[in-house]
Amino acid sequence: MPAYEFPGGIYPPERKTHSNQAPLQAAPLPALVTLPLKQHAGNAATPCVAVGDDVKVGSLIAQRNGMISAHLHASISGTITHISNQAITIEADGHDSWQTLPPLDWRTDSPEKLLERLDSGGLAGLGGAGFPTYIKAQVAEHHPIDTLVVNAAECEPYITADDLILRSYPNDVLEGAQLIARLCGAQRIIIGIEDNKPEAISALKQALPQIQHPATIVLKVIETRYPSGGERQLIKKVLDRDVPSGGLPADIGALCHNPGTLLAALHAVRDGKPLVERIVTLTGETISAPGNYWVRLGTPVGTLLNSVGLMPDRLHQVIVGGPMMGTPLTTLNSPVTKTTNCLIAASVTELPPAPMESPCIRCGACEHVCPAQLLPQQLHWYARAESDSTLAKLNLFDCIECGACSYVCPSFIPLVEDYRLAKQRIRLKQIETAKSEHAKHRFEFRQARLAREEAEKQARRQARLAQHQKPAGGSTGNHATPEVDLRSLRIAQAAAKAAVKKAEKVLARAAEQDPKQRFDDLETQLATAQENLKAADARLAKARASTTQKETP
Amino acid sequence: MGETFSWWGILSAVGVLTGLGVVFGALLGMASERFKSQENPLVEQINALLPQTQCGQCGYPGCRPYAEAINQGDALNKCPPGGDATIHALADLLGQEAAPLDGEAATEDSVAFIREAECIGCTKCIQACPVDAIIGAAKQMHTVIEDECTGCDLCVAPCPVDCIDMLPRSKPLTQWQPLVSATMIIASDRSYTGSEHARL
Amino acid sequence: MSMMHASQVGAAPSTAHLMRWVIAATLPGIGAMTFYFGLGVVSNVLLAGLFALVAEALILILRQRPVRPALGDSSALLTGVLLGACLPPASPWWLIAVGVFAAIVVAKQLYGGLGHNPFNPAMVGYALLLVSFPTYMTLWSPPQSFSAETLFNETLWAQVIGTLPPTKLDALSGATPLDAFKHKGQAVLASEFWASQPLPEGTLSAWRNVALAWLAGGLVLIIKRIISWHIPVAMLGSMTLIAALFYAGDPSHFASPLFHLLTGATLFGAFFIATDPVSAATSKRAKLIYGAGIGTLVIIIRTLGGYPDAVAFAVLLMNLCVPLLDIYTVPRPNGHSKTADKSMPEGPL
After folding, report:
1. Mean per-residue pLDDT for A280-301?
2. Which of A265, A292, A319 is the last residue of a domain?
């Protein structure tokens, strides 16, 4: 298969030999873990244990909340000591006793059973975004999937977690890929891997012939260029398909998974082990034993780094993730989560702080490296000017925040930071607008309801009056032009009827397009139109009553 | 000068100008009849910029009436929940000068809370709520639907037993936003503070 | 938030390094000019550079902006050096001061400083001087071979006093090849003109060698990836093409493409002026159009306009078009379909 190209890209120093020389080891068990309730994309999980409860490794401690969420399990055996809105803390008892689920066989067991296991295992994408795996496996319900792409590119400098996973467990990863391929119906699995991981490639080549059923697995070695591990970039590179803007790989029949996730999925199914530990790259010049380690989730970063020989006096900053897209930690008490793939304990010479930002000289270097073909420099101007409509026109939301533009900027402008800020600002604005729109509809509905109630009251009064005055005869005749009145009221009633029909149509069309969604605002609008119609009916009835009252004096 | 002067020149100029005036006047008149808009879209645009809390602090019963009043020439700066952002947006739309807010700015997004033990079930707050965000019935305890409440505090005054509090609304973590320095007029006005990355 | 920066890992220069590289690359050109026109060239460059730094510092103080980082990026120095390099040797000090003032204060800082100027500052200064002081701006002495006498002539003293040198005025007003060809007169055929030895011995070859020296500096910049090849190639290409069209149409009246390429400020402009990133277009396509526009304008003004050389005017005119070029050459982002993408900007943003 030929290799395709994505635009842009950079060649930063790899610095992977720091951590890929040592074999995979297990980090010492922590004495205390802090497990955040939101380690995945979507809603935070809801705790289902109480302070003082004893738990084992793998005990469920928080349940998923809604569709896009994930269960959370205890990662050490011990006692729950604290539960807050954000996290659950467990103190270890030192036994490390496990509570596993019954093993399943991914080849023979039913897909429902396997999906249920991915859900109950608390699996989320281990690559970085942390999307719940069981949802991703169900995507075939809406989109036909033909190819599962295993994203082993690992293009960020420093990180070697996937490299070591593939070297240590090539068969398990391939089996995990077959498991997911079976669930999503993909007939083909493509492993995209950068050519800077020869050991992993040869391990995969050895394992490949044995595991070619049910899906066929192809290994595809690609050129080392950042950010080839971006989902869109990798799919472009190995499949030559463009993921549509604002869309998902599933829209073009592809699904992308990280080797770590596949390994965890297989462990959850085959061994019944929920997601309680992961492989983390511990690297940087201030660590004496850099390498890849099995780390229990919730382990405090400080404890973990100390156990691999952190030299605190040389430490400048600790970065979670890679140097391109990662974030510096403000406190070493932060825990390792499901999405922590790398911790870099960097010295000041290794990753020096960026010098003072100088003005943009429009050199266009950012534009040449942008893998999404955006105009980073224009985005920079407009993001700082808070010109949100222009940002939308320049497709700000297509930015994958890979950091290539910040990397090459000769003026050290933190471009990605600007974009993140602007994106968040626009998102908040959209939430505000939606909220005020919602309030407006509720207000209009209330106005309509009050008007309807008033009109009905009047109509009833008029009807009563008519009955009372019928025998008496002779009206006071305060309605000067009842015919004209009636006519305009009839027109109003017809208009109200049309409005109801229109609102019904809009709601039906929206519901057809997305049956799962709820359309509160459209429903409120329909109710408002119905109230208006009722009010018009009542007014018409009242006017009719008064005219008949006049005509029969 | 005398030689070039002619009545014909003057008359023809006047004639041409008058003719042009008549033709374009007729065109404009026809266009204004033909493309007449049913309702004033400006009111809708103004209304879209207002925060729709329906609080009535502007002196009008709701946001739309205030939008109509602005269209009639009322001041832009009477909307405390919208604050400076709304005033600037309105000033941009209408091409007017932005004036400082008339009255006290709403400090933060708040939500009404009924101390349910003290509620006597009088329904007065229910009648006051512009968005039907309070549920309850006569002689039954009332409560606020937090998601629907706009924080307008119109329910606070009618309560005979003062059991309604305005509490700050809790924001989910996902809506977190870093603090940014005050807006700069031009990009080069940005202060040279360097990066503010957290250091250990 | 990238924690790694190309210039910190030695993969690319920072803004200040970019500026210093460009300054370094002017050395061959300035050296060649000094060889032929004396130390007046060096004193021009030094004086202009000094004035530029002073002007930048003063205006930054007035604008209440930090002075040190702005001076540290060497952009003002570069503007001064470029302006100084295009003035006639040993220009009066006040002439240089006026030009630098227009470049730094008016063209650069009044628009917001580095990165915000729509026009190339050095060319604004040059164009202002050319229009305001035409006599002083055409005082190109005939090039002489290198000797102690040509190095230290009394014109240097005139630069300090700020007047025209009292003697040798005739010798000084020697024309450049472009000047001479411009004023050859309609009736004179090109072949006759060249046969008549219109210029002192060695003038043509001197200007050619200076141009080649600028080319050498420019090639260094391209090899070091300080500038991209798009603008120089497009500019020189379009100049060759348009000049060839004229020349093919009437070789007896129009100069050959080679003459256009090797005289005047062509190569200096192509590599050092048109490539100023701040005032040039950014995307590759826009850069090609921008360069081609400059080349076309240069030939048109040289052959049909009133000025013998036109690089400054052509660059300034194309600077005007940059916002338009940038808007209409927005690339199609990934994941947007090729046909009828509504989200793409159409027309002014």
Report:
1. 94
2. A292
